[in-house]
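Lab notebook: predicted structure, single chain.

Context: the supervisor wants predicted structures on file for every construct in the current expression panel, including those that have not yet been purified. This is the next one on the list. No modifications to the sequence; it matches the entry in the shared construct table.
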Amino acid sequence: MQRRTLLAAAALLGATLSPVAWAQAWPTQPVKIIVPTGPGSSLDLIVRLMSNQLAARWGQPVLIDNKPGAGGLLGIDLAAKAGDGHTLAIGFNGPLAYAPYLYAKVPYDPARDLKAIVMTTSQANVLAVNAEKVPAKTVAEFVAWAKAQGGKLNYSSLGQGSSAHLTMELFLAEAGLQAVHVPFNGSPPAAMAVAQGTADATFMVAPALLPHVQSGKVRLLAVSANARPDSLKALPSLAEAGYPKVESLAWNGLVGPASMPDSTVARINADVNELLAKDAPLRDAMAKSGLTIVGGSAAEFRRFIDADVARWGPVITKLGVKLN
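Prediction complete. Output recorded below exactly as produced.
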């Protein structure tokens, strides 16, 4: 009798709790956020800027797990297959939108196996060159210099299939250039390659480049979008430099497995949005790193991903970029 009474009480409680109340019960254990790039990358920076505040809100530790590899597919696949209800990932263009067009086989379906939670930031890619090896101070001068190299130009990227990689491939096609692609696992080593002169140029977001710009080893020439933070306002856009078709944003946001309850998605979305909107130190740190805060609903993030798929899918096919 006592057991039946307890079960009935539990059923009644479950029926009367609203989705918000259930969301408030989450998390019941430490939350893991997988970063599919290495330490020091812009994705890693974003998660680390938020992790302590989120841990305080949730009453549970937030564990950051860097899993670089396969252009971000490795880390995102781990999140897609997580079944503990407490594993997220911060994703970006490559593994969330471009992968089906780039790879013959992807270990997950970005639309079916993942839930969009919240878009965190977006930022223009920056065209950067080695300041000693490359004399160019404008995009036009860089194109002229690159053509004079007789096909010996090389460029680094933060990984195959990334926005950085595809933006450079689109720029090369528009400018009539050829170059060798040297991919790395993350933006810090790709930026270092340009600073050391082992790579002539790169396209990537600003955070990993800024220390090398300040040291005088790297020069920034242009940004890949008209919308850019105050820290990059002095740079022309590629459209202003004569390449209007080369427009791209590197974006990122939190995703979870398709099995994640909508109430949990709503809880995470609300907490992250409040941090992005109201945490002044976090906002300042992101702005100084060239990151533009976005936020918004989970549905808006999903629509943004779908729009990027629609835009870049045909571009990838036309460029003929295929990865193993």
